[in-house]
Amino acid sequence: MGPYSVADGASKALQALQASCREELPEAFLEHAKSVVFTSTSSNGKGVHFPVPLKEQDAAAAIKALEACAAAAIADIRYRKAHRQIEVDLDKTSCFLMSAYLTTIDGMDKGNPEAKKKIPDTDLNQAQSVLYRRLSANLYETKTAGEYYHIHGSLEAGETLKMIGLPPQEPRLTDYHDCINTIEKAVKKFTVPELERMNLEKGQAGIPAMTWDKFRATPHGKALYSLPPLTLSTAESTTPCAAFDTPEVGDYNSPPRALSGIKVIEMCRVIAGPTIGRSLAAHGASVLKVTSPNLPDVPFFQVDVNTGKHTTALDLRNSRADREAFDALLAEADVVIDGYRPGALSRLGYSPETLSKLAERRGRGFVYVAEDCFGGTDVRGAEWAGRPGWQQIADCVTGVAWAQGEFMGLKEPVVPPFPMSDYGTGALGCVAAMAGLYQRATKGGSWICRTSLCQYDIFLMSLGQLPADEQKRLRQVHDSAFFDLRHSDSVDEVGRRALKSMERVAPHLFAEDDGLMQTARSSGFRATLRFPREPIRVTGLRVSHVRPARPNGYDKPTWDDDWTEDERMVDDGDDA
């Protein structure tokens, strides 16, 4: 048997994705799947790059392929129907899955302390910058030997630490291992059921680490397993078809974009939700990221997932003027991305039902895209649908972390390197949004699109693990230091060791002149940014970014600002 081919695996994953989403997507999307080719920038692109047992590259490449099919189908009704060759670059897909770790600001990556000086500090509660508080979001063993619980202080930290009997601040604790030992000692005072009760009482985002089989046996696991990775439903069906605006005129050097003129409001933080917006921006949508000046975010992620967007800050909870500004934005918007805990925007007065009523008044439908951790909103049996969560939480509950730990020779779970589930979920959300826009253009009405981190992980797990021979090869070629990791090592440490190993095993992903990265000068950050190129190419369309990232809250809350291409963007080479 020859070496494992990610290209072959991605083709099979695309078939599985089509089969599971067939009832959710326009037939036109699926027709273009026949034109998909999985390519690579390098001779090593079709190999497995990550020290993981699951088919992360295959899954992400399949989803990005479906995204390209969506762009092709929209182009058919917006411009002209044509045979469109679709290419998915597997090297660029790998870069996409670790985008936050490859992106740099003035040559500094997220692990460089000096990078913080270039980025507005959105870590309002020091939940990221203080190591002790940072490790309030981590996986620990419980009172019962062999059972593990991932506590998660989210972006606040203090409440989770107090919940397990620790002070919210502990200035004397600065050593990595001392912090872990102190917190794990506190967690070990409780059983999983006790931690679950406390976690739910305090509204925290913790979860027990489960195996795949155990998760599937839970009511929530059963409910989600019956769902496709993304869902579409009608919110209202009275508004007429909303055809795309007059086609953008392209020329030989600049083909048109599938989503030019589409206005997107992004209500998200961290990675998964903002990845939806970043992907839509690559197809030409005008994406306005709206954040609250009073809510924290992970500072460095601004450099990564704000690519292609405008950003503004509005306090919808306390400022009447800001609500009026948001309502004015909403009046013209086509898409609303909701990346908050289910119900959060509804409590502010912006539920899907409210959007539907606004759509009926203005005579043009909305596409509402919801991304969350657990999925299952309005699905019978999905008992955890309303729980808060993050990438690590989804990876722990669905069995992904247990699979990673067993691959590493351990009898304990380990959260996999890099926020791959975040990026994969974001790609699913982009496909869902494009499906909603296609349906709005051809059938009318408003559409509710949903996906979640758990739904992505279920799709990933359903593909099965890499063959035993390939897993053995990965254990042999990757650094032994990576396999010395334990359950309680932080995602930062796991990512750092994985990155160091991959720089040796797959050096082409990190080369300066590899064609995988794009460089641009950001006026918002007053710095030069380097970030991964988009993995897909579609004949007759442009899929790439026209503006670099800018900080949260940089722009005025208006659609009237200049949305033209930033001339300082270095030639992106992504036109097809």
UniProtKB/TrEMBL annotation:
<dbReference type="InterPro" id="IPR003673">
    <property type="entry name" value="CoA-Trfase_fam_III"/>
</dbReference>
<dbReference type="Pfam" id="PF02515">
    <property type="entry name" value="CoA_transf_3"/>
</dbReference>
<feature type="region of interest" description="Disordered">
    <location>
        <begin position="547"/>
        <end position="576"/>
    </location>
</feature>
<dbReference type="InterPro" id="IPR052985">
    <property type="entry name" value="CoA-trans_III_biosynth/detox"/>
</dbReference>
<feature type="compositionally biased region" description="Basic and acidic residues">
    <location>
        <begin position="566"/>
        <end position="576"/>
    </location>
</feature>
<dbReference type="InterPro" id="IPR023606">
    <property type="entry name" value="CoA-Trfase_III_dom_1_sf"/>
</dbReference>
<comment type="similarity">
    <text>Belongs to the CoA-transferase III family.</text>
</comment>
<protein>
    <submittedName>
        <fullName>CoA-transferase family III</fullName>
    </submittedName>
</protein>
<dbReference type="GO" id="GO:0003824">
    <property type="term" value="F:catalytic activity"/>
</dbReference>
